[in-house]
Amino acid sequence: MQKFYDKTDINAKKYLTGSSFIDYRTQPRAFKKFPTFFLSYDLDEFEELKFIKNIGKITASKTYGNVKVDLRANPSAGGLYPSEIYIQLRGIKSLVNGIYHYEALENRLTLIHELSNDGVEFYFEDKTQKKIIFLISNAYFRSAWKYEKRAIRYILLDSGHLLGSIYAALELENLPFNINFNFDKKSLNEDFSFDNFEAFYTSVFTQIHKELECKKLRTQIVNVCACDYQLKEKFIEEFYENSLKDDFPIVSNIEFLKGIKKEDLQKAIDTRRSIRAFKKEPISKEEFLFITKDIFEFAQKYEIEIYFINNNIKEMKKGLYKNVELQKEGDFKEIATKLGLNQKLSGDSAVTLFFTSKNSENIFYLYILSGFISQILYLRSTLLNISCSGLGAYFDDLSKEFLETSNNIFYLFTIGK
Ligand SMILES: Cc1cc2nc3c(=O)[nH]c(=O)nc-3n(C[C@H](O)[C@H](O)[C@H](O)COP(=O)(O)O)c2cc1C
C-alpha cells in the first residue's frame, strides 16, 4: 500500500524537474449518459426524491475564454468530477423499484435495472432490503488524464466530498446516513460490466425497507463508457486491487450538521464554492471552533491526525498546532504558502489544515474520510460566509519536514476571508 502511495508524491526535486504541459482539448468527458431508450425521470416530479439534486447539481458556471464550465454542488480536484452516482431505490411512490444512474447535470434518474427479488444488498454482509443505497463509482481516467499517478489521491478525496454531499442532502430530509465500504466489490463491479475503467468502492445506505434478503442481480447491468475515450492505467488499477479491504467499520451516527436550520443548510449547499484568493482578513476563534466542531475527535477515531497552521485566527496564538495543541509558535504564512506548492491560498488563509495519518494500511479509506470531513468544513464555512478551498497540490516531503512527522500527508484545507 505504502509503496504505491509513495509513487504519487510531489517532492521539491520532482516538482522542479517535471513537465506540466496539458493539452486541454484532450480532456475526457466528465459525465456519463445512457442511451435515450432507457427510461429516465425528472427528479422534480418526485417529491420524495427532489433532495437528491443537492448531491451534484450545477450551482454556478464560469467562462474561460470561449469555454463555459459548469460547477457543481460538490467540489472536485481540477473540476474533473471523476465519480458517478448510482442509486438503488425501493418503495418510492409511482417509481419502480430499481437501480438508477443519477444524471447530475440534468437532474434526472435513469433506470438501468428493474428489481425483482434481487438487489445490490446481495453483495453486502447484511443482505436485508434497504430503502435507498447510494453507490459511488470512480471513473479514474477522467482524473488520471491530467494528474497521472497522483490522481488516486484526488479521486478518493472527491469520493469523500461526495459522501459529504450525500450526508447533507439526507440531513435535509432527516434520513439516516451510514457509510459502508464493505462489500464484494469484485463481483458487484463485474455485474455492472465496468471492466475496471470504472468501479465502486464506497456506498451509503439509509434505513431498512423490508426484513427480506436479496438475491444476486439477476442480469448484468448495461454499461456505457464513463468518458468519450479512455486509456487503461495499470498503476491505478493495481493500486485499487491492492488496497481494497472489506473490514472497515460502518460509519454511522454522524451529527455534524444537526441543529442547523434546514433553509440555512440548503443555502449553504447552493452557494458553496472554492475561493480563488483570500483578502487576508482574520476569522474569530469562535468561528474557527464552529467550523471545526467535533472534527478533530472524529478524525482521531480513525487515526487521522489534523495539524493546522494558524495564520490569522484572532484570539489564538499564531503557529503550528497538532490536533488542538500548539506545537510551534510563530508566523508561518510564508512557509504555509511554500508547502502548498506555492499556492497563495495556503499562506493567505486564516487557517490551513493538514490531514495526515501514520496508518498506511487503511490509506484508501482514510483518504475518503478526509474528503468527507472536508466537505463538512466547506458547508460550515459557507454557513458563516467564510471562504475555503481544498488543496490537493502540496509538497509531501516539505510538509512532513515542517510538521516534524513521518505521517503521510493526505490533503490541505484552507479557510479564511
Ligand atoms: C480533492 C480536491 C483538491 C483540490 N485542490 C486544489 C488545489 O490544489 N488548488 C486550488 O486552487 N483548488 C483546489 N481544489 C478546488 C477545485 O479547484 C474546485 O473544487 C473546482 O474548481 C470546482 O469549483 P467549486 O469547488 O467552486 O465548485 C481542490 C478541490 C478538491 C475537491
From TrEMBL:
CDD domains: McbC_SagB-like_oxidoreductase (cd02142). InterPro entries: Nitroreductase-like, SagB-type_dehydrogenase. GO terms for molecular function: oxidoreductase activity. It comes from the Bacteria. SUPFAM superfamilies: FMN-dependent nitroreductase-like. Transmembrane segments: none annotated. PANTHER family: NITROREDUCTASE FAMILY PROTEIN (PTHR42741:SF3). NCBIfam families: antibiot_sagB. This is McbC-like oxidoreductase. It comes from Arcobacter ellisii. The lineage of its organism: Bacteria, Pseudomonadati, Campylobacterota, Epsilonproteobacteria, Campylobacterales.
